[in-house]
User: Fold these one by one.
Assistant:
Number 1:
Amino acid sequence: MSRIFAQVVVLTALLAASARAEVMFPTGSRVGLSPPQGFTPSDAFRGFEEKQSGSAILTVELPAQAYGDIEKAMTPAALRKQGVIVEKREPMPLKSGKGMLFVGHQDSDGKTMRKWILLGSTPPITALVTVLVPATAQATYSDAAIRGALSTVEVRETVPVDEQMTLLPFRLEEFGGLRPLRVIGPNTLVLTNGSKDTLDATEQSLLVISAAPGGPDEAPQRDNFARNLFSGYPGLKDIHILGTDLIRLAGQQIHQLMAEAKDGKSDNDVKIVQWVRFGSGAYVRFLGIARADDWSDAFPRFRTVRDSVGPR
C-alpha cells in the first residue's frame, strides 16, 4: 500500500510539473510561454498579469530581421534614459532560437519594479517579452521563477483564424456556408466559398468585411461616401456600376451598390456587391465578389452573412 501511495505521489508531482510547463499563448499572439503560478492571460493587453500584486508579462512581435538592430540599441545607457537601470545582461537560449536577457529595476508611480526584458530571435519573428514585478512581490516571484518562465518562451508559426476573429470589433452569427480565410489588421475579415487559401475572386467567391469609425450622418452624404469607398478589387478591369439602392435592416440604413467587371487575366465576367451599413459613429463595409456563373449561389450566402453581423 505504501508503495502504491508513493507512486501516486510521484505521478501527481509529474502531472503538476507538466501542467506548469504548458506553454500558453495570449489571444492573437504568436509569442507564448509558461507563466509563473498565479498569472493569467490579460484582457487589457497582450500578455499575462497577476492582479493581486500588480505584476505583468507583456509580449510584442517584431520582424525577424529587427533583432540585430534592437540588440545593438538596447545598451545600458539607452535603457537608463528610459528609466531602466540594467544590473545584468546575458544570453539566454530559446527553444527555437537565441535570446538576450536584461535584468534590472525601474521606478514607476512612486514604487520600484523589478524588470526583466527578453529579446528573442526566432526564424519567423523577433520576440520581446517584458516582465514587471513590484519589489514588494519579489519574494513570491523571484529572479529564479521569472527566469524559469522566460526559458519556456516559444513562437508559433501562425495564429489560427478563428482565434484572430475574436479580436475583431464585430461578430458573425451565421457564415452562410462560407469559410473564414484571413484576418487582415485589426478590423477586416475575408470569407470564401472555396477550399483554396487564395484571394483570387475568379477562383472562388470572396466576401470582405471591414469596420471603421466615422461615416456621415445624413442620407445624401452617405450615398456619396459609399460610392467613394467603392474601388473595385485588385485584378479586375472594366468595372461598371449597375446601380445603387438604400436598404433598411433592423433599424439601420444600408447602402447597396451593384457592379460588374472582368478578370484582368482571364476576361471572365465577375459580379460585385458592396453594402455599407451605417451606425452611430461607425460603419461596416461588405464587399462580395464572385464569377458571374457562380453569382446565383454566392449572393444569398453574402446576404446571410451581412444580416448576421453585429457588434462584439
Note: The CA atoms of residues 102 and 206 lie 47 Å apart.
Number 2:
Amino acid sequence: MKKYKPTSAGRRDGSVIEYKKKLTSTASKPLKSLTVGKRSTGGRNSFGRTTNLYRGGGNKQTYRLVDFKYDKKNIPARVETIEYDPNRTGFIALLLFADGERRYILAPQTLAQHDEVLVSETAKIKPGNRLPLSAIPIGTFVYNIEIKPGAGAKIARSAGNYAEVVAHDNGYTLIKMPSSEIRKVISTSWASVGAVSNEENRLVDLGKAGRARHRGLRPKNRGSARNAVDHPHGGGEGRSPRGHRRARTKQGRPTGKGQKTRSPKKYSNVFIVERRKPGRLMGGKR
C-alpha cells in the first residue's frame, strides 16, 4: 500500500495499491480473445429509468471473460500472468492449459507466475486448485464456491474474501461465510482453495472526489436533506427527524441500524445454520 504525501488537498490521505509489486510486468494489456466490449448503463434499466442511484460517467472499461464454471477438469494449467481487472476487486490470472487453451480465473493470494493449477477431485490442497467440497478438509479456506453443482462460482469472490469449511454432515458441507453466517452447501459443489487476492483493497482511501468519479460513482446525499417527494426521510422545517420508527430506503424498504431485511420466505433460509452477527464485524456500529 502506497500513501501519498499531502502535497495538495486532493493528495492528502489518499492511498493506492502498488500494482507493480503484485502484477506481472508483461501483462500491460489483456488477452484480446478473452475480452468483450462493455457498455456503461449509468444505473438505468432497459426502459431508461434509473434503478441504481449514484452511478454514471467513469472511465471506459473492457470486460474480461473470467471462467467461473471451471469445466476443464483433470487438465493441468500453468499461470502465465497475474493481471488487473477493472470490473472486480480481486486480481485475475491467465492460465495456459496443457491442451493449449487459455482462460482467465480469479486469482487467489500467493498464486504466482509459472505456478500450476488443477481442477480435479484428486487435486492437492493448495491455493488455486479446485475440488468438490466433500474432498476439502475441515478448517480449509475456500473461495469461488458453487451454490448448486455445475452452476458456477457464486460465493466469496471479492478481494480478500474467503469462506471456511466447518463440517461435513449428511451430504452437505457447512461453510462459514465472509459475513460470519454458517450455511449448508451440497457437498458435490466445487470450490477453489485459498482466499481471493488483493486483500489490501479495503484499505484504499480514494482521497478526493475525482477518483470516485473515475470509477463511475456520483455524489450521494442524505435522504433527510431531500424533499418529502424524493425520499421518506425528506421534508420538514429545518433539520427535522425522519419521522419514522425505522430507517427506510428511497423505495420505502427497511435499511441499516441492525434491521433484518432478509425475506422470511426466501428459498435458501433452510440452508442457514447460524445467522450472521451484526455490529462491527459487518462494518456497522453497536
Note: The mean pLDDT is 92.
Number 3:
Amino acid sequence: MRRATSFFLLLFILPFAAAAIDLPRDFVKAHSGQFTQGGMVVLHLQNATRVSLNGEALPQIDGRTVLGFGRDSALRHEIAFQRKGKRQNVAIKLKPRQYDIQRIDGLPPAMVTPPDEAWPRIIAQGKLKKKARAIASTQRGFSEGFVWPTRGRITGVYGSQRFYNGEARRPHFGIDIAAPRGTPVTAPAAGTVTLAEPDMYFEGGLVFIDHGLSVTSAYMHLDSLRVKVGDKVKRGDMIATVGSTGRSTGPHLDWRMFWRGARLDPALLAEGNPDQ
C-alpha cells in the first residue's frame, strides 16, 4: 500500500512576496515576472538598449528579452544596460525560497531505481530532450503570458524534495495537476513543438514547446499526443490529454518550464489556480 506524506500545499495556497526591483526607466519601459528563485522576468526595453545578465549578453525580439533563475540560484546577480552611449549596472537580489519534503513509500523497486537494461534507453532519450531544450528561436510566445495548460487539483509543487521508499531523489521541478485520464492539455502560450514522444521511460508521453529565446515548456505522463514536431500552436490549442504513462502513480499532468539551463517554477508564470 502506498503511503504519502506531504507538507507543500500550504506554500501553494499562501504564496511568498516577490522581491521588489527598480529598473532604470532610461533603459527599461516595463517588466513582468518575479525576481525570485524559480522565477522568470520579461523586460520590455527602450529602443536600442542592449542588456546582459552577469556578463552574458541577452538576445531580444521586438525590444523584449527574458531572464530566468533556477531553484537554487544564487541570490545576487547583476544586470548591465547600454543605450546611446549610456551605461548602467543594476545589482539585484532575488527573493529566497523554502522547499518542502514529500515522502512516498511502498513503491515497487523498479519505480525507484531503473533496472540495468533500461539505461541505454534512458541515455538515448536524455539526448533527445537535451537537443530539444537547446533550441533558442525567435518565437514570441514567451512575451504574451502563460495560462494553466489543464484544470485540476495541485498534488505536487516546484522545488519539493521527494523521498521514494526512504531514498532521496532530485527535487521536483514541475507542477503536478491531478485530473482524469483524457482531460485536455492545451498550450499555455504560443510556440513550436520541438519534441513529441509517446513512450519515454520516465515521462511516458512527453511534449516540448519552444516559446522563444530559450524558454521551453514540457508536459509529461500524457495519455495521447495531438501534435508532432514542427507544429506551431497558439495559446489554448489542444496538444495532448492527461494520462499516467511513464513513471507515474496516477493520472496527472507534470508541467515544467525551462530557460536555458535553469528550471523555472510554472506556478509563477500562470495566473490564478488550476483548481478553480
Note: The two ends are 31 Å apart (CA to CA).
